[in-house]
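Continuing from the previous page of notes. For each protein in this section, the sequence appears first, followed by its structure tokens. Read the first protein now.
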Amino acid sequence: MSLRRALSGVSLAAAVALSAFSPAQAQGAGGDEAKVQKFGTWSSRCETGETGVEQCHAFVGVGVGDEAGQQQRILYLGIGYGARDVDNDGSKDLFMFAITPLGTVLPVGIKWTIDGGEEFGQQFLYCLPGGCQTEILIDEKRLKALQSGKEMNVEFRLVRQGEVKIPVKLDGITKAIGSLPKPKS
């Protein structure tokens, strides 16, 4: 089984995130169908897809202001359960996905560092009109680091702006992930 097929549930959550958030919205409530709960810096979002299956993920959106005072999304991070048990441990796995703007340099990939600790990264999988996306498995070690950490730095490169390093506060991440419905194996 390919990793891309295994991640299809998280990809669906990312597609929902892309469709629900315009570039002007960095973080906030979606349409009437979405249930959004806020936990510090992080939030959780659940909505029922076209197939009638509820899709949920924890998320944080980061935006920057332009000259007109509008927010432009520069990063959307989400954490949700994948559709399959990728590591064959008997339960569906958590994945983190990142959506960055078009113009992201794909071969460079994206890197995450929690509280200055071990760096981990991933190549970008694809770009859609709403941005470029990648996904990475959140194993127990990374989950513990996220839940006990204070800040995560996210780094990627944009074509015209060069290296982008974004600090993301981790307050509320444990409650946001905990609010996600546990998947049925």
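Done with the first. The second protein uses the same format. Note its length before scrolling.
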Amino acid sequence: MTAEIDGNDFEIVYGVHAVQARLQTTGGRITKLLLAAATSSGRIAKILRQAERQHVTIESVSGQQLDQLTDGVHQGVALLCKHQTVAGEDTLEELLRDGGQQKLLLVLDGVTDPHNLGACLRSSAALGVDAVIVPKDRSVGLTPAAIKAASGAADLVPFIQVTNLARCLTWLKQWGVWVIGLAVEGSQSITDIDLTGSVALVMGSENKGLRRLTRQKCDALAHIPMSGTASADSPDGSLDSLNVSVAAGICLYEVIRQRSLSGVTGTD
């Protein structure tokens, strides 16, 4: 969401972790730090020191004002920032042209829950993902709720929106990226696929899984091996038994595991 303050629209970043991360990684885009008058803690004191070092304007507001500006638990602190320009295909091409290491990309096909996106960004930052790719339509963007759920990771991993996801996957394959879609009915276990080269892991939406055209563009469909009945009964092919962010974390870790065992340098 954006807030109308002094006639201008701003991106609202709220919550202690998200605010700390944004202060550490964002330069001139920060306009103002909003602090609820009754808020006081060691973490808030640290945020105040960061803001003062960067000469960020600090304004005391009521908790009710922050409630109106945010759509989640703000913990008494928020930042007003100039809008971040979301990256597009040009940024992705620059990334692929930069050789020297195997690429690891996470593609989210229609994930609409900002908390799932935030969790995927956290895993991506922790496991060295080079970029997270989403379609512009029918997919959540970097909303304040997603940024807060990411706990600072939204500023650490390039977030790329593409106009046509199927076309993007075709293009990735032309660059030598192995495109692996995750679905319960995938013919291979993710642990049996060689993930030591440049890889794009494609995860479907929370309810419908991978779209038909997205499936067709994948080089292979894989599943996560699970015990008991957890992997059964998914008529639409989605990862019903696992939250999409949990599934993404498992699969990303498998990439890192394989690369570590093989001595491949593919992540930072």
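What the second structure shows: Confidence is low (pLDDT under 50) at residues 1-8, 229-240. The domain at 89-262 is CATH 3.40.1280.10 (Alpha/beta knot). We return to this in next week's lecture.
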